[in-house]
Prior knowledge:
This protein is mainly α. 85% of the residues lie in helices and 0% in strands. The two termini are 16 Å apart. The mean pLDDT is 96.
Amino acid sequence: xxxxxxxxxxxxxxxxxxxxxxxxxxxxxxxxxxxxxxxxxxxxxxxxxxxxxxxxxxxxxxxxxxxxxxxxxxxxxxxxxxxxxxxxxxxxxxxxxxxxxxxxxxxxxxxxxxxxxxxxxxxxxxxxxxxxxxxxxxxxxxxxxxxxxxxxxxxxxxxxxxxxxxxxxxxxxxxxxxxx
Length: 180
């Protein structure tokens, strides 16, 4: 995967150079978002944050709130991955408020999944459960296995390991169905 990520990074850097030469603010913002995601997958949190901040600022200048909040949701996922769980919750809650307002079910599910993961890591079990249930309610199948895994983690943390088996097994079954 490292080689693929390096190739993706090189591709997006070339795309960014072209977008900048054309002064295409939208293409610059989308490309910076992609570079932020790649940097995050490469475990370069500093670069990821810089790229995502540039993308967010670009979308804000363009008045594209949907994309600006999508970048914020990506930031929440990144922050969870690198262990800044409080930061992930803060970024995620801001994005989630917008996605709920516009009823964007896929982004509600994606963002709530990141918040749930961060909450588990901070021991906020009730909030993790609530976010996992919100993910499931959106019926966005790619995110449901993660939510079920979160529910299993909550039950284990609450001292109910036997009750964790059902959501864990359901999550594994759905992940296989999703080829995930």
